[in-house]
Amino acid sequence: MTAFPNLPSARSCLLLVLLLFALSGCAAFRSYNAELTETINLAASGNPGAAAAALQKSHRRKRDLLYYLELGELQRLDGRFEDSQKAWLDADKAVQAWEETAKVNPGKLLGGAAGFVLNEKLGTYEGHDYEKVMLTTRMALNHLARGDWDTARVDIKRTHERETVIENLRAQEIEKTEQEATKRGAKTAFKDLNGYPVQTIDNPEVNALRNSYQSAFSHYLSGFVYEALGEPSLAAPGYRKAIELHPDNPILEEALSGLDARGGGGDGKTDVLFVIESGTAPARVSQQINLPIPYNNKLLFVPVSFPVIRQEDPGTLPSAIRMGGSTATPTVVTSVDAMARRSLQEEMPRIMLRGIIRSTAKAALQYEAFRQDETGLAGIAVILGSILTESADERGWRTLPAQIAIARARVTTGTPYLEVDTPSGTQRIALTATGRYQVIALRMLRGRLFVMPPPGPPGDKPEQQASTPSTPQTFLAATR
Is residue 91 a contact partner of residue 70, using CB atoms and an 8 Å limit? Predict the structure, then answer.
């Protein structure tokens, strides 16, 4: 392996390490997972407004894509749908810019594997693929909570288009990563990474997913919205795709098989779709592994950090939901937890390639420091600096739910309440079934139940929608 040109002297190495210690207090070296703990705890205590304030306080200097993703979710929990939508529109601008680049100049996004020589966290956060798709899906849910079915339809269409952009870019990325790995003689199979918890991202549930960004829930929701808007020819493909992504699921199959029979209406019933979410998306935590790096006929051990998935709150689901004499049982159709694990599995080849390149550069610096300084102090300083600065990127949309379930029931229109069976007992919630179709969103977060009712059925005029409050009710449903 050839030496790196223009490596610093032993004295420069010492100064460099001192600088790295100074840098260790900056945002690039902080733990995102640790920062989000306080925010999520506040939301789980029933105070999403305070959680949003804490998030804003911790992001005073830099407000990027991830900030707006988290903020929109917290504001949604607080019933501030308009504010939530503003935050997600800011996030969506960043994703749309990414999409445009992916279409016209994909090479710019694929970049070179030699990037992030110091730390993965120094790169601009572009969002994981499942987060990009979940963003437009959740924007659609916000519109449905405000009774705006037509705009929800627009976001649903953009969800499908976004999936295609991601699919095309990732195909190119796989090819480029393989080419660079071959050229450098680097191994990018995470299963061969000694000390890495392979089972966290390589297990039957994760491997059963077609990819990390398509979800049965997103496509089922598209089918429901198209059906509610009287477009069965578009609803059928949505339901069909949901079945492909989550086969052998009766509630998905029933939506497709009963589509024609439900088209009549006028029977005094409301077709209610309950969207039940629980827990929080898993965290990425940094784990250091010492890799043996050959350099100038010597074998040097250099610390390299890789992200590892750790589940924080898988959540619990209600056992049953009752409304107007109808009982529905929630069925999980999408695991965001599994999508996050599949996303990391797909990302690992390029993460490993960058890690190997980074560690080779550090090995060269370490070798030269020991060679130039007989005391060994410079070499030791370089080793300490490598350990200090080497940290995996822990960033990710943590306030997303861990799992998404659905339940569906035909309820007598005008029914004034629903009942939710939780581990701590039944919660009765004042909420009226209205219109021919309705979406009711529920979120279980560490034992607390958030209910986000819609203001009205499809076809309501904007002024009627605005006059009806959409503030979610919260209930302490269980303790952990």
Answer: no
Element (H, E) at 323: strand 320-323
| d(C-alpha 116, C-alpha 122), whole Å | 7
pLDDT tens readout for residues 177-225: 888 888 888 888 898 888 899 999 999 999 999 999 999 999 999 999 9
Q: Quick one: 209 exposed, middle or buried, by C-beta within 10 A (0-12, 13-18, 19+)?
A: buried
Q: What is the dihedral of CA 268, 258, 234, 440, to 10 degrees?
A: 50
Pick from 29-33, 188-192, 376-380 the range whose average pLDDT is largest.
Answer: 188-192
Instruction: Provide the token pair at 223.
Output: 């089918």
Q: What is the DSSP letter of 264?
A: -
Nearest to 449 by CA among 461, 441, 459, 458: 441
For 287-350, give the DSSP string.
EEEEEEEEETTEEEEEEEEEEEEE-SB-----SEEEETTEEE--EEEEEHHHHHHHHHHHHHHH
3-state secondary structure of 272: strand
Average pLDDT, the chain: 83
Angle at 122 between CA 116 and CA 126, to 5 degrees: 95
Helix residue spans in 29-123 (DSSP H): 32-44, 48-58, 65-77, 81-104, 106-110
Residue 466 CB-half CA count within 13 A: 4
Helices 377-389/10-23 angle, 10° precision: 30
Helix and strand totals (H; E) in the chain: 15, 12
> Which two three-digit tokens encode residue 173?
């990325």
Query: What are the beta bridge partners of residue 409?
Result: 272
Contact 212, 129 (CB under 8 A): yes
Q: Give residue-wise pLDDT tens across range 224-239.
A: 999 999 999 999 999 9
Task: Give φ, ψ of 440 to 5 degrees.
Answer: -120, 120
Give every CB contact of residue 233 below 8 A, 6+ residues apart in sequence.
none
Of the pLDDT bands very low, low, confident and very high (cuts 50, 70, 90), residue 157 is: very high
CB proximity list for 208: less than 8 A, separation 6 or greater: none
The DSSP code for 210 is S
- State CA 259 to chain mean position distance: 31
Domains of the chain by start residue, with CATH: 10-476 (1.25.40.10)
Q: What gap in Å lies between CA 227 and CA 262, rounded to an integer?
A: 9
Q: Within 128-286, where are the H helices?
A: 129-145, 149-184, 204-207, 216-228, 232-245, 250-257
Q: What does DSSP say about strands 437-445 and 269-278: parallel, antiparallel, or unpaired?
A: parallel
Residue whose tokens read 């739910």: 401
Q: Return d(Cα 257, Cα 29) in angstroms, integer.
A: 52
| First-to-last C-alpha distance (Å) of the chain | 54
